[in-house]
């Protein structure tokens, strides 16, 4: 697994709470899709802040600390042993593992079809929480085929923690980028889009080109926002299922959108902030 010594990124589903940003409870903008929230929930290491994801809106923020040991040497190390955290997610991890044999027998096309099936079920009203085991099993298998990397159980837990909107700590090189794609794929099934936020153009491009292969393989559109892009290019990329963008570009795009005097002057669609 590639080390991520310089990785410093935030992963955000396009949902938000009323924390961190003081914004209108319902602001409509053609600039970005769905809900957006700047880093509140995060995975971080001693040298970097890492991925954040928002799933369902939560009134409180709870730090998840777990010392997982084993091969990865403690992916969520914190102030306790992490036994409670492992037990909390053990049942779901077992379900994902139980699906592995079935999912691994799928052909590439059947694996992609699973994405469309899950998306249709989400649109029919099934919750993302209920779809999580199948979605994570699909991403794990796609990652194995495309990247040659099979997410460990502790990385599945990391994805579950992020989807739940809680904080987990990961050390450098323990796979923040790979962990983040699990809840990114899951939340993209809602059709509202997901932002993966990092600190510079290089990291955004690297992550999009590398781990972005997984959702692309599964039939999702993956976009990338870079500093010198035109408005039309930005609009096209923000409309993707998963969009990689830097924190500065995302912030300035929001400001530009609100300064636009005409609706056709902005380049993404429908940003609602809470």
Topology record:
Layout: E1 9-13, E2 34-35, E3 43-44, E4 63-64, H1 83-104, H2 108-123, H3 128-146, H4 153-164, E5 167-169, H5 176-188, E6 194-198, H6 201-210, H7 213-217, E7 222-224, H8 231-238, E8 242-246, H9 247-259, E9 271-272
Parallel strand pairs: 2-9, 3-5, 4-5, 6-8, 7-8
Antiparallel strand pairs: 1-6
| Secondary structure: helix percent | 40-55%
Strand content: 5-15%
Q: What is the domain tally?
A: 1
Mean pLDDT: 76
Low-confidence stretches: 1-31, 35-77, 270-274
| Number of DSSP-assigned strands | 9
Pfam family, one: SecA_DEAD
GO biological process, one term: intracellular protein transport
Catalytic activity: ATP + H2O + chloroplast-proteinSide 1 = ADP + phosphate + chloroplast-proteinSide 2
EC number: 7.4.2.4
